[in-house]
Specification:
The complex is a heterodimer. By secondary structure, chain A is of the alpha+beta class. Helix content of chain A is about 50%, strand content about 10%. Chain A has 13 helices and five strands. In chain A, a hairpin with a 2-residue loop joins strand 2 and strand 3. Classes of the chains: A alpha+beta, B mainly alpha.
Chain lengths: ~375, ~70
C-alpha cells in the first residue's frame, strides 16, 4: 500500500474517511513508520491550529470603552432613563404653587385694598364739617339691596331710621345724578364715596346756599309750623335718606338774592330771611324762601318755569285759585306774578294782600 | 498575533479552516467553497500547517523585538 498523503491523514483524523478506507489507513499506519510520523505531525498541526483559532474568540479586557461595551453586549440597546432629581421636582412644585397663589390672592388683595381705601375716604369725609358722611353711608346701606358688605353699616341703620320723618329732608335727584346701587361691596363703597364728593361739589357750586334736601312743595301749613333754620336743616339732613333722595341741586334766583341782600343791608324793616330751600323736580327749580316781615312770616316761592301739574291750568288761573284756597284755608293770602325773566313767583303769608304787595315791592322793587 | 497569523493565510485556506473550526464537515465546506470533498482534506492540511508556521514566525519576531527593546 502506498504511503498516506497529508490530506488523507487529516481526513482520517477529522473522521471524514469512509469506514473501509479508515480501517485500511489505520492498518497501514500501524505497519508504516513513515506514515506514523506523518500522522503524528498532522495531529500536531490540527491541535495547534485549533488553539490559535480558539484564541481569536478571547477578547481582551479594555478593548471596548465602558460606555460602548454595554451597548454592544448581545446587540441590545440599553433603555434610556430620564431621571429628574428630587431637588428639581421640589423647585418646580414651589414655582407652580407660588404662581397659583399670586394669581389667586392678588385679586382678593386688590379688593381688600380698595375696601380699606374707601373706608378711609369715608372716614375722612365724615370728619369734615360739611356733611355727616357716616350717616350717609348708613343710608346708602339701607337703600341697597342684598349687600353683605353693608351689614356693618346696616347695623346702625335702625338707629338712623328712628328719626322723625319731618327731620329728614327728601328731594328728587335727577336721573343723571342718581348713583347706581348694586349688591356688591364695592358698589356700596363707591356710592358712599359718590355721595361725599357730590356734597362737596354742590357746596362749592352753590354760592349762598348750603346743600339742602328740600321736601315737596311746602303745604300751606308751612307758614304756621315753626320755621326751621338753615342750620337746623343742615344738621338734620341726611340720616335715613335714600341715595336717590339725597342731594338737591338748584339754581337760586339771583334776582331775589340780590334784592334781598340789598334790602337787608339797607333797611331794618325789610323782610328778614328765615330760611331758604331749593328744590328741583322735572327740570323745574323752585326756591322757597321764608321771610320774617316785622313778625309776620311770609313765604316766597320762586319757580324757574311755570308749574305744569295743574291739568292745563293757565297762569291766569293759578293766582286766583291759590288765593282762593289760601283764603279758604286759614286766611292766608298769596300773590303770584311772573317777571320778564320767566320766573313765576308766589308770595304767601297770613297777611293782607296789600302787605304782600309791599313785601313784594321791598323784595323786587315797585310794580311797573 | 493569532489574528495576524490567520490574516496571512490564503482566503480559501482561511475560510476552510474557520468553517471546520465552526463544526462544518467536509461536504459542507466543499459546497461552501465550491470544491470537491476529496480536496478539503488537502486544503485543511495545508491551511493548518501554514497557520502554525505563521504563528511561530510572529512569536519569534515578537520575541526578537522584545529582546531588542530590552537590550
Amino acid at each position: 500500500m502506498q504511503h498516506l498523503d497529508e490530506g488523507t491523514i487529516h481526513a482520517w483524523l477529522d473522521g471524514e474517511l469512509p469506514l473501509a478506507e479508515g480501517e485500511a489507513a489505520a492498518a497501514h499506519v500501524a505497519q508504516c513508520e513513515q506514515c506514523a510520523m506523518s500522522m503524528a505531525e498532522a495531529r500536531g498541526f490540527i491541535a495547534a491550529s485549533s488553539r490559535i483559532l480558539t484564541a481569536l474568540d478571547a477578547v481582551p479586557g479594555g478593548v471596548w470603552p465602558a460606555a460602548q461595551k454595554t451597548a454592544h453586549v448581545a446587540g441590545a440597546r440599553a433603555p434610556v432613563r430620564f431621571r429628574v432629581s428630587r431637588a428639581w421636582m421640589a423647585a418646580a412644585a414651589v414655582l407652580v404653587l407660588s404662581t397659583v397663589t399670586v394669581i389667586v390672592i392678588r385679586p382678593r388683595r386688590d379688593v381688600a385694598l380698595r375696601v380699606a381705601e374707601a373706608r378711609k375716604e369715608s372716614k375722612t369725609a365724615a370728619r369734615s364739617p360739611a356733611a355727616p358722611q357716616p350717616s350717609l353711608m348708613d343710608s346708602t346701606a339701607v337703600g341697597a339691596a342684598g349687600a353683605p358688605a353693608a351689614s356693618a353699616h346696616a347695623a346702625s341703620a335702625p338707629a338712623v331710621s328712628a328719626r322723625k320723618p319731618s327731620e329728614v329732608a327728601r328731594a328728587r335727584v335727577p336721573a343723571e345724578d342718581a348713583p347706581v346701587l348694586a349688591g356688591s361691596a364695592e358698589d356700596k363703597l363707591s356710592t358712599s364715596d359718590f355721595a361725599s364728593r357730590k356734597d362737596e361739589r354742590e357746596k362749592a357750586q352753590d354760592q349762598g346756599n348750603s346743600v339742602a334736601r328740600a321736601a315737596a312743595p311746602p303745604p300751606p301749613s308751612v307758614a304756621e309750623a315753626p320755621a326751621p333754620t338753615a342750620d337746623s336743616l343742615a344738621a338734620k339732613r341726611v340720616p335715613a335718606l335714600h341715595m336717590s333722595e339725597v342731594v338737591v341741586t338748584g339754581a337760586g334766583t339771583t334776582t331775589s338774592t340780590e334784592k334781598l341782600g340789598s334790602a337787608i343791608a339797607s333797611d331794618t324793616a325789610s323782610p328778614r330771611v328765615v330760611s331758604r330751600r331749593t328744590s328741583t323736580a322735572r327740570g323745574d327749580t323752585a326756591v322757597t324762601t321764608v321771610y320774617d316781615v316785622q313778625g309776620v312770616v311770609v313765604t316766597l316761592i320762586d319757580r324757574s318755569a311755570p308749574p305744569t301739574d295743574l291739568r292745563g291750568a293757565t297762569m291766569n288761573d293759578i293766582a286766583p285759585r291759590a288765593r282762593l284756597q289760601a283764603q279758604k284755608a286759614s286766611a292766608i293770602n298769596s300773590i303770584t306774578w311772573s317777571d320778564s325773566t320767566g320766573h313765576l313767583r308766589t308770595l304767601r303769608g297770613p297777611t293782607s294782600l296789600a302787605e304782600l304787595g309791599r313785601v313784594r315791592a321791598l323784595l323786587f322793587g315797585p310794580t311797573p | 498575533m493569532a489574528r495576524a497569523a490567520v490574516d496571512r493565510l490564503a482566503e480559501r485556506d482561511r475560510l476552510a479552516l474557520l468553517m471546520k473550526e465552526e463544526g462544518l464537515d467536509y461536504s459542507e465546506i466543499a459546497a461552501a467553497l465550491g470544491m470537491s470533498v476529496g480536496s478539503i482534506g488537502t486544503t485543511l492540511s495545508r491551511a493548518r500547517r501554514r497557520l502554525v508556521e505563521e504563528y511561530e514566525r510572529l512569536q519569534l519576531e515578537q520575541k526578537r523585538r522584545e529582546g531588542n527593546a530590552a537590550s
